[in-house]
Amino acid sequence: MAEEKKRTRRANGESAIYLGKDGRWHARVPMGYKDDGMPYRRHLTRPTRKELVDEVRRLEKQRDEGSARQPGKPWTVAKWLEHWVQNIAKPVVSENTYDGYEVAVRVHLVPGIGRHRIDRLEPEHLESLYRRMQSAGSKAGTAHQAHRTARTALGEAVRRGHAAKNAAALAKPPRMEEDENEVEPYSVDEVQSLLLEVNKRRNSARWMLALALGLRQGETLGLRWSDVDLGNEYLKLRRNRLRPKYEHGCGEAAPCGRKAGYCPDRVQVRRETKNTKSRAGRRAVPLPGPLVVMLRSHREAQARERTAAGNLWTESEYVFTKPLGGPLSPNTDYHDWKRLLEDAGVRDGRLHDARHTAGTVLMLLGVPDRVIDQIMGWEPGGAARMRARYLHVTDPMLKEAARKISHAIWGPPEDLAVDKDQDNEG
Q1: I need a surface site. Which of 46, 68, 201, 372 has the fewest CB within 10 A?
Q2: Pick from 358, 222, 233: nearest CA to 285
Q3: What gap in Å lies between CA 160 and CA 157, rounded to an integer?
Q4: What DSSP string describes 87-105?
């Protein structure tokens, strides 16, 4: 009798299928172990044995592939996103990346799809959210940011076994229409107009670093004098200036009633700079002679400002500072750029358009792609894509190409004139 029981005992990992007293077929499927080491089994029930066997096989396949939901109470999308952004993403991504994730989670994803169970979320739920966002006035780019955030967060959930599929990876984000205000780099004439106005202002070299070399805002504002070698005419880019972030310092007993950034006792809660994370971003950039002269003059002017300010001066190693020292705020820098464009009589544009201008000028001058990549700080693997995005074919370039084609096929312009005269005589 004991031997018969031994023969009918199920092997480890084998599912138990039986007909219950309720007339339905039941199964207990071994799925692994809980956090405390105890075995974990999923209970399934279906009206017929065939339906149950099909479901058991599907679940066993998910278990064997590692894609089955793990034991414990299923996550809602809201709970998972909030956990992911605070405890998984925040410690490992940059402050700016975290800010983008946090806004997408708090403003769009949690209100829009947060009540769904994470293992029951479908691509259609996300696509419906994107449509609602656009109907409410959000741009396609905002919906794309929400989509990228959801795809990253749900991908982590799949890797950890909380969901069998990444619904965001299957969802189709809205189409990104061509930008009506497509970037048009500043012409050489416009750059020269800006140069005339720049020479009348503080921190004049700051703007020429953007227009001539394409330095990003964070790279320029994070530049320190130890990064600048005027003798050998180059600078090293190693860190980025971050946007300040503040919390109230006034206390709950006597709140100021203002936003944290305007609190009289505000407390800075974000570091000023972060090291450049990519190898391409950490780079040496050559300085044109006129920029070397501008930086020398700027250093002398800064020394005079320090002397005049006396005890009011905030000491720092930054190349570009406020009138009383200390690092420039990215927000102040942005508004200075807008005033510069207006005073120079140059069309309005983003500060980042100066980077497009610098890259296009480098291409116009025939600088080799590898050198352009070095100056602009593009990774080798994505450099071709970045060149396609930043280097613009301008009208003068097209006219020069037409002139070269004409010269190659029809000959020099004087030959064309002779042929035309002969045709007239004929």
Answers
A1: 201
A2: 233
A3: 5
A4: IIITTTS-HHHHHHHHHII
Q: Could you tell me if 115 and 77 are in contact, meaning their C-beta atoms sit under 8 angstroms apart? A: yes
> Which residue has 């050998």 as its token pair?
232
Provide the pLDDT confidence category of residue 407 given band limits of 50, 70 and 90. low
- Residue 7's pLDDT band, with cuts at 50, 70 and 90, is very low
Q: How far apart are CA 203 and CA 320, in angstroms?
A: 6
The DSSP output letter for 174 is P
Residue 66 has a pLDDT of 64
> Which pLDDT belongs to residue 34?
67
Distances (CA, A) of 383 to 3, 277, 369, 379: 71, 16, 9, 6
Residue 364, exposed/middle/buried by CB under 10 A (0-12, 13-18, 19+)? middle
137-149: per-residue pLDDT in tens?
998 889 999 999 9
- End-to-end distance of the chain based on CA atoms, in angstroms? 120
Distances (CA, A) of 195 to 8, 294, 295: 89, 11, 14
Residues 81-98, buried b or exposed e (16+ Cβ, 10 A)?
A: bbbbbeebbeeebeeeeb
Give the Cα separation of 42 and 25 in Å (integer): 14
How far is Cα 32 from Cα 38, in angstroms, rounded to an integer?
Answer: 9
Question: Residues 29-62: pLDDT tens digits?
Answer: 888 776 666 787 888 999 999 999 999 998 888 7
- Determine the pLDDT at residue 379: 75
The whole-number pLDDT of residue 11 equals 53
CA–CA separation, 80 vs 153, rounded Å? Answer: 8
Main-chain dihedrals φ then ψ at residue 201, nearest 5 degrees: -115, 165
Alpha-carbon gap, residue 261 to 259, rounded angstroms:
5
Angle at 277 between CA 275 and CA 280, to 5 degrees: 110
pLDDT of residue 344: 92
Tell me which of 77 and 182 has the higher pLDDT. Answer: 77
- Tokens at residue 263, please? 């609190």
- The three-class DSSP label of residue 52 is helix
The three-state secondary structure class of 189 is helix
Indicate whether this model's pTM tops 0.90: no
Q: Cα 162 vs. chain centroid, distance in angstroms? A: 26
Cα–Cα–Cα angle for 79, 84, 87, rounded to 5 degrees? 110
Distance CA 247, CA 269 (A): 7
* CA distance linking residue 126 with residue 116, whole number of Å: 11
What does the block give as tokens for 26? 């039941």
